[in-house]
Amino acid sequence: MSTGETRWQLFNQCSKAMLQTYLGHINTRGVSSRLCLTDFNVKVNRLGMFQLQHAQSRKYVCFNRRRRVTVRIIFVLRMATSLSDCYNVPVEHAELKRILRF
Fold it and tell me: InterPro entries attached here (predicted)?
């Protein structure tokens, strides 16, 4: 874990288990001691919006069209300008940020 990085484990009240990614799929059958499956990095931007990224696979937690949780690889292209930083973010990521806004 790098300096300043926050990791979460997400607990599901219904299944009484942790959210985990296993073989490219996400489910709620995780055990808290299996850190490689259940650890998520939390990234927060200046606007208070956050992203959950699986610590090992680096895939992001997203919602699909039916608003079910899924994991995807999201490429964020960062372009530095003289005045400010601009981000080119895919549609799925923008939808996740809209739903999870504080």
Answer: IL1/FGF
